[in-house]
Design goal:
The chain is α+β, with helices and mostly antiparallel strands. It has a domain of about 60 residues. Helix content is about 15%, strand content about 20%. A three-stranded antiparallel sheet has the order 1-2-3, covered by helices on one side. Strand 1 and strand 2 form a beta hairpin. The longest helix has 12 residues.
């Protein structure tokens, strides 16, 4: 037994006729976030410590190096992001590097393409 389904016709008729499950519905989650901050992006070929030094001098800030932000990406290693902070009574500024300082492997993994602390084995 065959059935002709008109081109562009919805799949519900076809699925009922051949006893297939109906197509999966797509749900969209609409969430509004309340963000009480401004986000600025800087493009620079300078290293983050040099950029922090220049911003401190030009804008009279005190961006101070903070501990790096570390995110474990499990199979892909660790993401280490350089972090500087300026905090005053009315203002908090952060300078974050948009790329990982060092893509370190997760615990128990080795880096690919490196032989270790002694260099390549001969």
């Amino acid at each position: 037994m065959t059935a002709e389904v008109p081109f562009g016709y919805g799949g519900a008729y076809f699925c009922r006729f051949f006893a297939l499950p109906p197509p999966m519905k797509t749900l969209t989650l609409d969430v509004e976030y309340s963000c009480d901050f401004d986000l600025f992006g800087l493009v620079s070929s300078s290293r983050e410590h040099t950029l922090a030094w220049v911003l401190n001098r030009v804008l009279h800030l005190r961006l101070v190096k903070q501990p790096d932000l570390v995110y474990d990406l499990f199979a892909r290693g660790r993401l280490v992001i350089s972090n500087y902070l300026h905090a005053s009574e009315h203002l908090t500024l952060r300078l974050l590097r948009n790329r990982s300082v060092d893509r370190l492997p997760a615990a128990g993994q080795q880096r690919r393409g490196r032989a270790g602390p002694g260099g390549p084995a001969h």
